Amino acid sequence: MNNKIKKILKKKNKSKIVCLTAYSKNIAEIVDDHADIVLVGDSLGSVLYNYDTTRKVSLNMMIEHTKSARMGVRKSLLVIDLPYNTYRNKSEALKNSKRSIKETKCDAVKVEGGTKVKEIVKHLVKNRIPVLGHIGITPQTTKGKFRSKGKNEVEKRKLLKDAQDLEQSGAFGIVLECIYSDISKKITNSINIPTIGIGASVNCDGQVLVTDDLIGLNETKFRFVKKFGNVKKYIKSAIIKYKNSVKQKKFPSKKNSY
Ligand code: KIV
């Protein structure tokens, strides 16, 4: 097993796992120093391309962004999201995972779904592809308005079964997206692999956020997002300084000219 994955597994019940997204080298470089897992998420479809659904993200797009992120990631585990319709059966999943890992040199793949993808996950793991699962709200297949999962007993039982099936299939961890805190606690305590929450309370073994959201670069209104900074302000200020320098003919100076 990959040493980075071993380290992440050891953190369960000891210290929180920090996961962040990165879609490019420059952000990945900053994130890498502070994260255990860097995820090239298909959220890039909405964050960078303004798509109304992640279903429009292609494998080629994911591969190009992961190649860029790879240049910035040295110590963290680099995970690529397999996009919609790229893991519909075992052979398609294996072919696309192998291609992703070969072309990007990433460490693992993430797939959405629980019980429904258990045979696919099993097949990937058998073929030495490390897999991160993802249950709760699964944006690739959730139709209509996103609604938190695990409100009633039927949903709670399904989520627990999803998580147990993923663990049994050999996934090394599971993202829990928008799950009520009581069931995220139950899942976290019922399985031996780490849970990584997004909108799933402090009861998970780790936490993931979309970096562009938390630094205030991407505007989003999801309740589970907290803006920890406002980089837009700094970018704006640098751009205004540049504009004024150009208008006042202060830039480029002799120092910047040949
Ligand atoms: O696509 C993504 O960035 C994700 C995370 C939000 C978990 O799946």
Give short descriptive properties of this protein.
TIM Barrel, 2 domains, eight-stranded parallel beta barrel, globular, binds 3-methyl-2-oxobutanoic acid
In short:
The chain has an 8-stranded parallel β-barrel, surrounded by 7 helices. With 258 residues, the protein is α/β, with parallel strands linked by helices. α2 packs across α4, α4 packs parallel to α5 and α7 runs parallel beside α8.
Report on this model:
The chain is an alpha/beta fold. It folds into 2 domains: 3-227, Phosphoenolpyruvate-binding domains (TIM Barrel, Alpha-Beta Barrel); 230-258, no CATH class. Helix content is 41%, strand content 14%. It is built from 10 helices and 8 strands. It has helices at residues 3-10, 25-32, 44-47, 59-72, 90-104, 118-126, 153-169, 181-190, 211-214, 231-247; strands at residues 17-21, 37-40, 77-81, 108-110, 131-136, 173-177, 195-198, 206-209. Strands 1-2-3-4-5-6-7-8 form an 8-stranded parallel beta barrel, surrounded by 7 helices. Strand 6 (173-177), helix 8 and strand 7 (195-198) form a beta-alpha-beta unit. Helix 2 packs across helix 4 (59-72), helix 4 (59-72) packs parallel to helix 5 (90-104) and helix 6 (118-126) packs parallel to helix 7 (153-169). The longest helix is centred in the middle third of the chain and has 17 residues, at 153-169. 44% of the residues are buried. The mean pLDDT is 97. The site of 3-methyl-2-oxobutanoic acid has 10 residues, from loops. 3-methyl-2-oxobutanoic acid is lined by residues 21, 39, 41-43, 81, 175, 198, 208, 210.
